[in-house]
Specification:
Immunoglobulin-like; globular; 3 domains; mainly beta; 2 helices
């Protein structure tokens, strides 16, 4: 009897332990909304992107069909709409850009001189579009000043259709633009068939400096592209055969993800296909790592390169980490039994990753989805550096909420998010302007985290000049110096330092703290927004932002 009792007790304890481990390995976060705002009019208004406006607020870009509410003017059917808000969501000014036809999307990034670039797709030939549309939809780049006034604008494309994908600020201040194109003329240097992948680099004044087209006899839509640390480029594309310039092992489904590494002159260095026997498509989200890359896609395959698909008629988000030669280190399917879509991808300070997207699922990896059947919530997922799911969180109401690029990382535990919402319920408490989508912007923070922040007041650290052009001084109070070095005799492997990262999370500098002042020489650093973190041992004591003007 004693043996049986002990045996049952052992089984019960084992079962409880397994449940405990499962809870630790997959749970919801403690993220909560700090403030939120809804912006738009009575028609459909969809936010695509958000960026910081100096040290005071944000610029939100997207598309609008409204001419009421917050939207003071509409040129035609659809405009790119820009709204400036303060740090807690109050709208300060807004402006529409476009012509009498359909002008959409609108990604926004800050220029090295403190102004901004908006990039989208236009079909208009009038209004603000004065540079000459080549036909159908063109890629449209607009440079604006800090008050939203147009400095210059230019259309890029041919007589076919150009579908804008992304724009990235390069280290030298130029701009990398990726799009899918059906044109065989105009600005296009080549054309293969149907949709090709077109990558081109422009100067801060809009001049095309480099341009290349990639594809074969089938559809090759580009999904995202980045600059690499060696000065080359890396992009993800779609491929459904290995004809033409597409090489590798095709996996036999409807589509594979075609990953291509380019040199500085846009020549192919290496390429590889990823997928399974069903549908595998790239999407937004690429980060270069020290040992390779991580990229996002969507999939409903469950063989060959893909494992862990959750089933159903929809698609999972597919995160793939590869080495510098394209070999898979790990892959992870994320989702439930319905559809998932990717938004943005960030690396966290612990080497893991945050994925922003949207989900229609109510099971599998997804819990806490507020949306009714057929609608989606904004979905945030945290992965470890090994690809394990650490936590997930849904934000939204019972209607339709989603996201494209619109995220700003203030810290690993603090984010500003710009997407859209079409109802007031659950998390959506701001006032909508009608029964269609509004911009939905909110800040979330995990207030339960244990980041040390005891010296963020009383002038613990001074950073000046900011904005800066030649140098930045970090000046510390005596209490910071003593606290930073406390206990370092047993932790000399992690001495106190200022760590500088760019907007992509890449380390730009690490400045050791030896006395009351540390200077960062930025004469050879490109203009833009950078982030500093005062690090002592394994603790982040204070974070902030630096703007470099060139």
């Amino acid at each position: 009897m004693k043996t049986i009792t002990f045996k049952y007790l052992h089984l019960i304890c084992t079962f409880i332990f397994i449940l405990f481990i499962f809870h630790l390995s997959f749970s919801q976060s403690n993220m909560s909304i700090q403030w939120q705002g809804c912006y738009g009019g009575s028609e459909k208004d969809v936010a695509y992107d958000i960026c910081e406006y100096q040290a005071n607020g944000y610029l939100i870009s997207g598309k609008t069909g409204s001419q009421d509410g917050d939207v003071s003017f509409l040129h035609g059917n659809k405009d790119i709409w820009l709204a400036r808000i303060d740090s807690i969501g109050n709208i300060l000014w807004e402006r529409s850009y476009g012509g009498s036809s359909y002008d959409m999307e609108g990604k926004i990034i800050q220029a090295t001189d403190g102004n901004f670039y908006i990039c989208g797709a236009v079909s208009s030939y009038d209004g603000d579009v004065q540079s000459g549309n080549h036909g159908d939809y063109d890629v449209w780049v607009v440079k604006i000043d800090q008050d939203g006034e147009i400095i210059w604008e230019k259309c890029y494309g041919g007589s076919g259709r150009e579908d804008f994908t992304n724009i990235k600020l390069l280290n030298n201040g130029n701009l990398l633009i990726s799009c899918s194109s059906t044109s065989d003329d105009g600005d296009l240097p080549a054309h293969y068939h149907a949709y090709d992948a077109w990558l081109f680099v422009i100067s801060p004044y809009g001049e095309i400096l480099k341009s290349a087209v990639f594809g074969n006899e089938l559809h090759n839509n580009v999904y995202d592209a980045i600059e690499t640390q060696d000065g080359g480029f890396f992009f993800t594309c779609g491929a459904s055969s290995t004809e033409g310039m597409v090489e590798g092992t095709y996996h036999g489904g409807m589509l594979d993800i075609w990953v291509v590494k380019l040199d500085n002159n846009m020549n192919i260095e290496w390429q590889k296909l990823y997928g399974g026997s069903d549908f595998d498509s790239g999407s937004r989200g690429i980060i270069e790592l020290l040992d390779g890359y991580i990229f996002l896609g969507v999939t409903n395959s469950n063989d060959q390169d893909v494992s862990g698909f959750h089933g159903g008629e929809g698609e999972d988000i597919w995160a793939v980490r590869i080495d510098t030669e394209g070999n898979i280190i790990w892959q992870r399917c994320l989702g439930g039994g319905d559809w998932e879509f990717t938004g943005d991808l960030h690396q966290t300070d612990d080497g893991g990753f945050i994925i922003f997207g949207s989900t229609l699922s109510h099971g599998g990896d997804v819990s806490g989805n507020n949306s009714w059947s057929g609608n989606s919530d904004i979905w945030i997922v945290k992965l470890s550096t090994e690809g394990e799911l650490l936590w997930q969180e849904c934000f939204g109401g019972y209607g339709n909420e989603g996201i494209i690029w619109g995220t700003i990382k203030k810290s690993d535990n603090n984010w500003v998010v710009a997407g859209w919402a079409d109802n007031n319920s659950y998390d959506v408490s701001c006032n909508l302007h009608g029964y269609k989508e509004d911009y939905w912007v909110f800040e979330i923070e995990d207030t339960s985290t244990n980041i040390i922040n005891t010296q963020t007041t009383d002038n613990a650290i001074k950073v000046y000049p900011n904005p800066a052009t030649d140098y930045v001084v970090f000046e510390f109070s005596s209490s910071v110096i003593s606290n930073c070095w406390a206990g370092q005799s047993v932790s000399v492997r992690n001495p106190p330092a200022i760590q500088i990262t760019n907007i992509f999370g890449q380390m730009m500098a690490e400045l050791p703290i030896k006395n009351e002042k540390t200077v960062w020489d930025i004469r050879e650093v490109s203009g833009g927004t950078y982030f500093y973190c005062l690090q002592s041992g394994l603790n982040a004591i204070e974070r902030g932002k630096i703007i470099i003007l060139k």
